[in-house]
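Reply to dn_fold:

You asked what the input looked like. This is it:
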Amino acid sequence: AMAKRGDRVAPPPKAAEWHLVFGNSDAAHGWEELVRQAPGPTRDAFDAISKDPRDTARLGRQHRLRGELASVRIAGEELPQWQYEVTAGGRVWYCVDDMRKRVVLTYASTKHPKATE
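and this is what came back:
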């Protein structure tokens, strides 16, 4: 869907950065909720993921999901799925699409996801 009047402007990626897209409307709504409740940490998450979606320097905060959540089929392709812990409960899950140098946000919520409890 095209952006409309009043929508937040997303910064375009810098040359070396990854381009972030929403994989579904739930992820978009969850992201907006995170932006409202924790704007600073959500901006940090955006910056970290767009710079390097596979960074493991922030151990415990940014890591590949395991088991059934380790990959997701998007547009017919199996992509690795990662998690970024935005806040104590807030999470963003995303898939890394190397072909298109983009990151697909599959889940975003201010509450801890049930699937990983």
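The chain has a mean pLDDT of 91.
Hope that clears it up.
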